[in-house]
Amino acid sequence: MAKQATTDKRQRRERGSINPDDIINGAFELAEQVGIDNLSMPLLGRHLGVGVTSIYWYFRKKDDLLNAMTDRALKQYVFATPYVEAKDWRETLGNHARTMRKTFLGNPILCDLILIRSALSPRAAKTGVVAVERAIESLAEAGLSPTDAFDTYSAISVHVRGSVVLQRLYDKNRSTDGAPGDFEETMVIDPDTAPLLAEASAEGHRIGASDDKNFEYGLNCILEHAARLIEQSKPTKATPRRKAAAR
User: Fold this and answer.
1) CB within 8 A of 201, min separation 6: which ones?
2) Which of 32, 77, 144, 176 could form a disulfide with 149 if both were Cys (CB 3.0 to 4.6 A apart)?
């Protein structure tokens, strides 16, 4: 939930005493209070104690500032995400996915900048490509074909991002006048007409929710499918009869 911006003004800075890093740091501080959507140059100027023209000197429009914030956020995200290793690909890919999700859920600003806004500068996009290439390379080394390695990592990425964005939208909806977070909260489940749904709901299962249980189920389905593909790619040993026929 966006907090009300503080009304306490910082002491007015001297002209020319601010730099891009100061502005970006202040933008993250302010975004924690008001959210990315409500972040504005005039509000940031008041937060930093400078005239808005001092900000425009370095960032000509809000999108330029958000791109710079995304560059920094992406570095934090890449640093926090463990690599995928070929020798124990299933465990490391699972941990990779869980850490990605945990990192985004724990930092709404990171989620809004990278996943929801999803506008990367060329430098940030290049950083993302290098990280994805490394993961796909490890999966191919583990035994997947290049195409299957790509599809497996793509499925993991979509699964993680979908789970996080659904949770973020749920949180945003819940913060608006007490509105329900998702459609499931408005569903009336009658055991007489939907006995299976009622039984699963009574056991704590939620349909279409971005909770841990649904996330782990989907993640395990992707990992299991990749394991079958690797197993199928291994050469089979010929039986003695086949060897004789071949001779």
Assistant:
1) 189
2) 144
* Amino acid letter, residue 160: V
pLDDT at residue 197 in the model:
74
The 3-state secondary structure of 204-222, one letter per residue: CCCCCCCCHHHHHHHHHHH
Domain CATH code at residue 97:
1.10.357.10
The per-residue pLDDT for 241 is 58
pTM of the entire structure?
0.74
Planar angle of CA 220, 78, 75, nearest 5 degrees: 155
* Rg of the chain taking only CA atoms, in angstroms: 24
- Does residue 139 sit within a domain? yes
Q: Residue type at 26?
A: G
Q: Count the domains in the chain.
A: 1
Cβ atoms of residues 109 and 116 within 8 Å:
no
Both structure tokens of 246: 């071949």
Using CA atoms, how far apart are residues 81 and 101, in angstroms rounded to an integer?
A: 10
201: exposed, middle or buried (C-beta count within 10 Å: 0-12, 13-18, 19+)?
middle
In which domain, by residue range, is 155 found?
A: 83-233
Query: Which residues, at least 6 apart from 83, have a Cβ–Cβ distance to it below 8 Å?
Result: 92, 96, 134, 135, 138
Would the pLDDT of 107 be above 70?
A: yes
Encode pLDDT of 133-191 as tens digits. Answer: 999 999 999 999 999 999 999 999 999 999 999 998 888 877 666 555 455 556 677 77
Task: Output 3 or 201, whichever has higher pLDDT.
Answer: 201
